[in-house]
Write a structure and sequence with these properties.
Order of helices and strands: EHEHEHHEEHHHHH
Helix content: 40-55%
Structural class: alpha/beta
Largest sheet: 5 strands, parallel
Number of strands: 5
CATH superfamily of the largest domain: HUPs
Shape: globular
CATH topology of the largest domain: Rossmann fold
Strand order of the largest sheet: 3-2-1-4-5
Length: 218
């Protein structure tokens, strides 16, 4: 049996990585670098020892943003193809069967717990089993390393709230501009195809939800 930690460089997976090491549980921590995590996450990944980093290959693309530009698509909340193509499938292709895959879902995220659809690859959720919440995880990391990671996510993730988009615009204006360009490219493509517009955020286009035309970001 092979044992893997699906590592996302967020609070949950970092807690689980430390816990597995502390309790001497056999595992290989594997992170998929699709090139589009927030810069803070990318920097954090560099500090993680003994981490296996793999690259996706989706129609020749290793970078999620470049793939979206090529396809004239944007990720959506309703069809999580981006996670499937650029995270789950690369991991499943890497894992040797039979295997157990540890996932850092916290107890307050139990709705995300799912049985694996892959044959001979079995999901296991230790943090849920132990009842550890996100705050418990933050405390756990703080006590052991003091190096608490930021929330792990793509910088043009459709699940980001307005505050996160405003933060991206403020501290990473270059990435915010790239997100706007992707959104505009997709909207023009859908218009030409006779389809309804599709924005990166359900509340509207990025310029509107960040108040870009207003004097203050906040």
């Amino acid at each position: 049996m092979n044992f893997y930690l699906s590592y996302g460089a967020g609070v949950g997976s970092e807690t689980l990585r430390l816990w597995l090491i502390e309790h001497d549980w056999q595992h290989e921590a594997v992170y998929v670098d699709h090139g589009c995590d927030w810069p803070e996450t990318q920097e954090f990944v560099k500090t993680v020892p003994n981490l296996t980093v793999i690259k996706p290959d989706v129609q020749g693309f290793a970078n999620l943003y470049e793939y979206c530009v090529y396809k004239k698509w944007v990720p959506t909340m309703f069809a999580r193809w981006c996670t499937d193509k650029f995270k789950i499938r690369p991991l499943m292709a890497y894992f040797k069967r039979p295997c157990i895959v540890y996932l850092g879902i916290t107890a307050d995220e139990q709705k995300r717990v799912k049985m694996s659809k892959e044959k001979e690859a079995f999901n296991h959720y230790p943090l849920v089993a132990m009842g550890m919440t996100r705050q418990d995880c933050i405390d756990y990391i703080q006590e052991r390393t003091g190096n608490v990671p930021s929330r792990s996510r793509c910088w043009f993730c459709p699940f980001m709230d307005k505050g996160s988009w405003k933060l991206l615009r403020k501290i990473h204006p270059y990435l915010y501009q790239k997100a706007k360009e992707l959104e505009a490219r997709n909207m023009e493509f859908r218009k030409e195809s006779g389809k309804d517009p599709l924005t990166l955020n359900q509340a509207g286009c990025l310029e509107d939800i960040t108040g870009e035309n207003q004097y203050s970001l906040w």
